[in-house]
Amino acid sequence: MTFDSIDYKLIDLLQQNARMTQMEMASAVGLSQPAVAERMRKLEQDGVVLGYAARVNARKLGKDISAFIGVSIEHPRYNAGFAKKILALPDVLECHRVTGSDSYLLKVVTENTESLDRLISNLLRVIPGVTRTLTSIVTSSIKEGSHITPAEMEPHDSDKRGKSRAKRQKRQ
Description:
Blueprint: H1 5-16, H2 22-29, H3 33-45, E1 65-73, H4 79-87, E2 92-97, E3 104-110, H5 113-124, E4 130-137, H6 157-171
Antiparallel strand pairs: 1-3, 1-4, 2-3
Protein backbone atom coordinates (compact mmCIF):
# COMPACT_ATOMS: atom_id res chain seq x y z
CA MET A 1 0.00 0.00 0.00
CA THR A 2 1.23 3.50 -0.72
CA PHE A 3 0.55 6.20 1.81
CA ASP A 4 -0.17 9.87 1.31
CA SER A 5 0.20 12.81 3.67
CA ILE A 6 -3.31 12.26 5.06
CA ASP A 7 -2.49 8.64 5.98
CA TYR A 8 0.67 9.82 7.72
CA LYS A 9 -1.28 12.48 9.60
CA LEU A 10 -3.87 9.89 10.71
CA ILE A 11 -1.08 7.58 11.92
CA ASP A 12 0.48 10.48 13.80
CA LEU A 13 -2.83 11.48 15.39
CA LEU A 14 -3.51 7.90 16.51
CA GLN A 15 -0.07 7.61 18.08
CA GLN A 16 -0.64 10.83 19.99
CA ASN A 17 -4.13 9.87 21.18
CA ALA A 18 -5.66 6.53 20.19
CA ARG A 19 -8.90 7.57 21.90
CA MET A 20 -9.45 10.35 19.37
CA THR A 21 -12.77 9.86 17.58
CA GLN A 22 -12.98 9.43 13.84
CA MET A 23 -14.94 12.69 13.72
CA GLU A 24 -12.06 14.50 15.45
CA MET A 25 -9.55 12.92 13.07
CA ALA A 26 -11.72 13.82 10.08
CA SER A 27 -11.79 17.44 11.20
CA ALA A 28 -8.01 17.45 11.70
CA VAL A 29 -7.26 16.12 8.20
CA GLY A 30 -10.12 17.73 6.28
CA LEU A 31 -12.00 14.55 5.33
CA SER A 32 -15.41 13.10 6.13
CA GLN A 33 -15.79 10.57 8.93
CA PRO A 34 -16.60 7.72 6.48
CA ALA A 35 -13.43 8.52 4.49
CA VAL A 36 -11.36 8.40 7.70
CA ALA A 37 -13.06 5.14 8.72
CA GLU A 38 -12.12 3.58 5.36
CA ARG A 39 -8.51 4.76 5.61
CA MET A 40 -8.30 3.42 9.17
CA ARG A 41 -9.70 0.08 8.03
CA LYS A 42 -7.02 -0.12 5.31
CA LEU A 43 -4.22 0.85 7.73
CA GLU A 44 -5.35 -1.92 10.07
CA GLN A 45 -5.83 -4.45 7.26
CA ASP A 46 -2.36 -3.70 5.85
CA GLY A 47 -0.76 -4.21 9.27
CA VAL A 48 0.36 -0.61 9.71
CA VAL A 49 -1.86 -0.15 12.77
CA LEU A 50 -1.27 -3.28 14.85
CA GLY A 51 -3.64 -2.54 17.71
CA TYR A 52 -4.66 -0.09 20.40
CA ALA A 53 -3.41 -0.09 23.98
CA ALA A 54 -3.26 2.15 27.04
CA ARG A 55 0.14 3.12 28.42
CA VAL A 56 0.15 2.54 32.17
CA ASN A 57 2.35 3.46 35.13
CA ALA A 58 4.08 0.21 36.12
CA ARG A 59 4.90 1.46 39.62
CA LYS A 60 1.25 2.17 40.37
CA LEU A 61 0.58 -1.46 39.43
CA GLY A 62 3.21 -2.78 41.86
CA LYS A 63 5.99 -3.27 39.30
CA ASP A 64 8.92 -1.26 40.68
CA ILE A 65 11.82 -2.76 38.72
CA SER A 66 12.52 -2.31 35.01
CA ALA A 67 15.54 -4.03 33.53
CA PHE A 68 17.17 -4.96 30.26
CA ILE A 69 18.57 -8.46 30.06
CA GLY A 70 21.02 -9.57 27.41
CA VAL A 71 20.73 -13.31 26.78
CA SER A 72 23.29 -15.43 24.96
CA ILE A 73 22.12 -18.59 23.22
CA GLU A 74 24.53 -21.46 22.55
CA HIS A 75 23.31 -22.25 19.03
CA PRO A 76 20.53 -21.08 16.66
CA ARG A 77 18.81 -24.47 17.00
CA TYR A 78 17.65 -23.26 20.45
CA ASN A 79 15.98 -20.09 19.14
CA ALA A 80 12.49 -21.52 18.61
CA GLY A 81 12.36 -23.11 22.06
CA PHE A 82 13.68 -19.93 23.66
CA ALA A 83 11.06 -17.83 21.87
CA LYS A 84 8.26 -20.15 22.98
CA LYS A 85 9.34 -19.91 26.64
CA ILE A 86 9.73 -16.11 26.49
CA LEU A 87 6.24 -15.65 25.03
CA ALA A 88 4.85 -17.32 28.17
CA LEU A 89 6.54 -14.87 30.59
CA PRO A 90 4.26 -11.92 31.39
CA ASP A 91 7.04 -9.81 32.96
CA VAL A 92 8.94 -9.83 29.65
CA LEU A 93 7.52 -6.87 27.74
CA GLU A 94 9.85 -7.04 24.75
CA CYS A 95 12.22 -9.61 23.27
CA HIS A 96 14.50 -8.71 20.39
CA ARG A 97 16.98 -10.89 18.52
CA VAL A 98 20.11 -8.75 18.25
CA THR A 99 23.62 -8.68 16.89
CA GLY A 100 26.69 -8.30 19.06
CA SER A 101 27.70 -10.23 22.14
CA ASP A 102 24.10 -11.17 23.04
CA SER A 103 21.61 -13.21 21.07
CA TYR A 104 18.54 -11.51 22.54
CA LEU A 105 17.73 -8.37 24.45
CA LEU A 106 14.76 -8.45 26.82
CA LYS A 107 12.90 -5.60 28.45
CA VAL A 108 11.31 -6.72 31.69
CA VAL A 109 9.16 -5.08 34.33
CA THR A 110 8.73 -6.88 37.63
CA GLU A 111 7.80 -6.32 41.26
CA ASN A 112 11.20 -6.06 42.96
CA THR A 113 14.78 -7.34 42.94
CA GLU A 114 13.63 -10.65 44.41
CA SER A 115 11.18 -11.29 41.57
CA LEU A 116 13.84 -10.19 39.07
CA ASP A 117 16.26 -12.71 40.56
CA ARG A 118 13.61 -15.46 40.32
CA LEU A 119 12.93 -14.53 36.68
CA ILE A 120 16.62 -14.72 35.80
CA SER A 121 17.62 -17.74 37.90
CA ASN A 122 14.52 -19.93 37.76
CA LEU A 123 13.02 -19.04 34.38
CA LEU A 124 15.62 -17.64 31.97
CA ARG A 125 18.84 -19.47 32.82
CA VAL A 126 17.11 -22.86 32.77
CA ILE A 127 15.86 -22.49 29.20
CA PRO A 128 17.77 -24.95 27.00
CA GLY A 129 20.54 -23.21 25.06
CA VAL A 130 20.89 -20.19 27.36
CA THR A 131 24.56 -19.80 28.21
CA ARG A 132 24.67 -16.35 29.82
CA THR A 133 22.57 -13.41 30.94
CA LEU A 134 23.68 -9.85 31.62
CA THR A 135 21.21 -7.61 33.44
CA SER A 136 21.06 -3.83 33.61
CA ILE A 137 18.52 -2.40 36.06
CA VAL A 138 16.89 0.88 35.08
CA THR A 139 17.45 3.55 37.75
CA SER A 140 15.58 6.31 35.90
CA SER A 141 14.13 6.84 32.44
CA ILE A 142 14.77 9.95 30.40
CA LYS A 143 12.56 8.97 27.48
CA GLU A 144 10.08 6.18 26.90
CA GLY A 145 7.61 6.05 24.10
CA SER A 146 6.23 4.26 21.14
CA HIS A 147 5.67 7.09 18.64
CA ILE A 148 7.20 6.26 15.24
CA THR A 149 7.69 8.97 12.66
CA PRO A 150 7.43 7.48 9.15
CA ALA A 151 10.71 7.68 7.21
CA GLU A 152 8.95 9.57 4.43
CA MET A 153 8.21 12.43 6.82
CA GLU A 154 11.81 12.84 8.05
CA PRO A 155 14.28 14.96 6.08
CA HIS A 156 17.10 12.76 4.78
CA ASP A 157 20.67 13.98 4.36
CA SER A 158 20.63 12.83 0.74
CA ASP A 159 17.46 14.88 0.14
CA LYS A 160 19.14 17.95 1.60
CA ARG A 161 22.22 17.43 -0.58
CA GLY A 162 20.06 16.90 -3.67
CA LYS A 163 18.06 20.08 -3.02
CA SER A 164 21.23 22.09 -2.38
CA ARG A 165 22.77 20.74 -5.58
CA ALA A 166 19.61 21.62 -7.53
CA LYS A 167 19.67 25.18 -6.12
CA ARG A 168 23.34 25.59 -7.08
CA GLN A 169 22.68 24.33 -10.60
CA LYS A 170 19.72 26.68 -10.94
CA ARG A 171 21.90 29.69 -9.99
CA GLN A 172 24.61 28.77 -12.52
